[in-house]
């Protein structure tokens, strides 16, 4: 892969010509979202501290087993469930999707009226500044979004199901604690067992998982530590097919995400961040609601590039690879997004001029040309390097070893530096071409 931006120019000084271009090369793709997810037991609850089933807890309609096994809330959320009641062979194993949630007594625990569930995480959950969307943990229940028509046809063709904006949910009040004694409550929400319904597997027809001969669409398990964009709501999915909804989720398993920054929690003196270790879920009193819990997960911090990308583009723009993809041109700089990031640039608003990626200055008193550009010095997926060649016809002739001149760098803004190359001008027929090249790390 070799992608050049629209930016280039040629400068002449006496008999010396200098060509500057900005491009990105390499063969490694860069994923905006983490993939694949490598399961870690410490990403989830590891112990049930206390469980009171309360009243109104039902039973598995297939086996009659009660939904009172609190151990079901430990570990990762359910990936696959059974096909009973779907209109197809009940022996089939089906992926959990937003219109077919986990529903078995071996997958969920129910919290009845007057009851509660207290879980302990295997490690502290921090209000980490690098967490995507500022979310710190996710609760998975068995909320589902209905379809029109309501049938099992989606199983044989997920494109056949069209979602309605309605979500069947049973909100549970969520409290958190550092010591299991002093609790802080999300009084006004979010609530457990609400939007967004779980997606167990990634939609990828090119790499279907071996979960049955029928499966032509569902691939590897999703990532339960990557939250959905909080700007996404149930009504945004209305009228979309299950395929489109799965594509919106991408590699995320969905769930309801929470921000510890909203609570007045004590600060960890070592990190300066709020933190918790315990979580308590209770039904709303008197509402007759009995929340189901499948799992709770700790959000994984995003890379610097991922956070930048999420800030630059809406969830809708991220669906369009030409706008919000790594090699899309949605930042308004006339260069691939990932390269705009590597050069320390944010999105240009419509109508605002785009400053040049490189500045070419003629220092007549020094009989030299000075090339200046800015690049990031932190966790960038692309390393921006300066290369030169003496022969534009030789595609393999570009090299950092050919660069002639004095290179200096100094801090620009936090996380970026300004780089300058001073190129001496000679009275000869030599031709030197220079380019900035983005190299995938």
How does this model look, in words?
The chain has about 450 residues and is mostly beta strands. It folds into two domains: about 1-30 and about 320-440, no CATH class; about 40-300, no CATH class. About 10% of the residues lie in helices and about 35% in strands. It has six helices and 24 strands. The chain has helices spanning about 155, 240-250, 305-310, 315-320, 320-325, 335-340, and strands spanning about 1-15, 15-25, 45-50, 80, 95, 110, 115-125, 135-140, 145-150, 160-170, 170-175, 185, 200-205, 220, 255-260, 275-285, 290-295, 295-300, 360-365, 370-375, 380-390, 405-410, 415-425, 430-440. The strands form eight sheets. A five-stranded antiparallel beta sheet has the order 3-7-16-11-12, with no helix packed on it. It is elongated, with a radius of gyration of 27 Å.
* Number of separate helices: 6
Largest β-sheet summary:
5 strands, antiparallel
Order of helices and strands: EEEEEEEEEHEEEEEHEEEEHHHHEEEEEE
Number of domains: 2
Beta-strand portion reads 25-35%
First and last CA, distance:
14 Å
Helix amount, in percent? under 10%
């Amino acid at each position: 892969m070799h992608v050049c931006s629209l930016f280039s120019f040629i400068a002449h000084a006496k008999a010396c010509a200098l060509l500057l271009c900005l491009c990105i090369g390499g063969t490694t793709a860069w994923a905006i979202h983490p993939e694949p997810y490598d399961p870690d037991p410490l990403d989830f609850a590891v112990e049930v501290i206390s469980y009171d089933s309360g009243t109104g807890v039902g039973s598995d309609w297939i086996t009659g087993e009660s939904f009172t096994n609190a151990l079901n809330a430990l570990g990762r959320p359910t990936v696959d469930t059974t096909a009973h009641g779907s209109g197809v062979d009940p022996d089939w194993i089906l992926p959990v999707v937003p219109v077919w949630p986990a529903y078995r007594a071996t997958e969920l625990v129910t919290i009845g009226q007057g009851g509660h569930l207290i879980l302990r995480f295997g490690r502290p959950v921090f209000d980490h500044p690098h967490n995507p969307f500022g979310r710190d943990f996710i609760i998975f229940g068995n909320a589902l979004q209905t379809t029109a028509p309501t049938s099992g046809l989606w199983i044989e063709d997920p494109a056949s199901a069209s979602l309605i904006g309605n979500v069947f949910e049973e909100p549970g009040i969520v409290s958190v604690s550092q010591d299991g004694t002093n609790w802080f409550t999300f009084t006004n929400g979010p609530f457990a067992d609400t939007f967004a319904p779980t997606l167990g597997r990634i939609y990828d027809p090119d790499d279907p998982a071996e979960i049955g001969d029928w499966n032509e669409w569902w691939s590897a398990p999703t990532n339960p530590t990557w939250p959905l964009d909080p700007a996404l709501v149930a009504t945004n999915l209305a009228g979309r097919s299950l395929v489109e909804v799965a594509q919106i989720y991408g590699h995320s398993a969905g769930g309801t995400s929470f921000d510890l920054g909203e609570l007045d929690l004590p600060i960890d003196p070592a990190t300066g961040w709020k933190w918790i270790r315990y979580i308590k879920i209770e039904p709303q009193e008197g509402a007759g609601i009995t929340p189901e819990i499948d799992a709770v997960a700790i959000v994984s911090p995003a890379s610097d590039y991922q956070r930048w990308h999420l800030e630059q583009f809406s969830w809708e723009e991220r669906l369009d690879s030409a706008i919000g993809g790594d090699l899309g041109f949605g930042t308004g700089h006339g260069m691939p997004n990932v390269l705009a990031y590597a050069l320390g640039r944010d999105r240009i608003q419509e109508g605002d001029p785009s400053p040049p990626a490189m500045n070419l200055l003629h220092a007549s008193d020094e009989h030299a040309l000075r090339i200046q550009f800015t690049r990031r010095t932190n966790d960038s997926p692309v390393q921006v390097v300066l290369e030169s060649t003496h022969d534009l016809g030789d595609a393999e002739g570009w090299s950092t070893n050919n660069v002639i001149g004095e290179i200096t760098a100094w801090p620009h803004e936090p996380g970026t530096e300004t780089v300058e190359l001073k190129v001496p001008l000679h009275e000869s027929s030599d031709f030197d071409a220079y380019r900035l090249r983005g190299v995938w790390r």
